[in-house]
Amino acid sequence: MADGGLVIAPGLLLPEIAGAVSRRTGQPRLARRAVAAVLRLPSLRLVPIDAALAETSAGLAARFRLRGADAVYVAVAARLRLPLVTWDADQRERATLIVRAATPDD
C-alpha cells in the first residue's frame, strides 16, 4: 500500500518475496538478496502480525473468501485506513468490499 511515497505492508511480505523468487529461479541465495534489497528501501514500513491482526485477517478470510495471505494485506489496509494496492485481480475485487483498492498503475 502506498501513502505519500511510503510502502506499507505486513511483515508477511518478506517470506512471500523469498518464496516467490526461490521457487521461480531455484536460487535461494537470490531470494535472500531480493529480501535484503527490499529491506534497504527507505520508504518501506513493515507492520508486525500480532494476535489482533491475525484474528482480523482470519475473520476477513472467512467472511470474504480471501486467501489467507491476501486477507492479511487487506487487514493491514483496513487497520491503517489506507487503500490496498495490488495486481491480484481476485484480491482487489474482494477487498473493495472492505477498503479502497487499486492497481499500482492507477
Task: Quickly describe the structure.
This protein has 106 residues and is α/β, with parallel strands linked by helices.
The overall pLDDT average reads 94
**DSSP helix fraction:** 55-70%
Biggest sheet statistics = 3 strands, mixed
The helix-and-strand class reads: alpha/beta
Order of helices and strands: EEHHEHHEHE
Overall, the morphology is globular
DSSP summary, beta strand count: 5
The multimeric state of the shown protein is single chain
The DSSP helix count reads: 5
Share in β-strands: 5-15%
What does this structure look like?
This protein is α/β, with parallel strands linked by helices and 106 residues long. The chain has a domain at 2-11 and 43-102. The chain contains five helices and five strands, in the order E-E-H-H-E-H-H-E-H-E. Helix 5 (89-95) links the parallel strand 4 and strand 5. The protein is globular and about 40 Å long. It starts with a strand and ends with a strand.
Keywords, separated by commas or semicolons:
alpha/beta, globular, 106 residues, 3-stranded mixed beta sheet, 5 strands, 5 helices, two-stranded parallel ribbon
Describe the secondary-structure layout:
Blueprint: E1 2-3, E2 6-10, H1 13-25, H2 28-39, E3 44-47, H3 51-64, H4 68-80, E4 84-85, H5 89-95, E5 101-102
Parallel strand pairs: 2-3, 4-5
Antiparallel strand pairs: 1-2
Helix pairs in contact: 1-2, 3-4
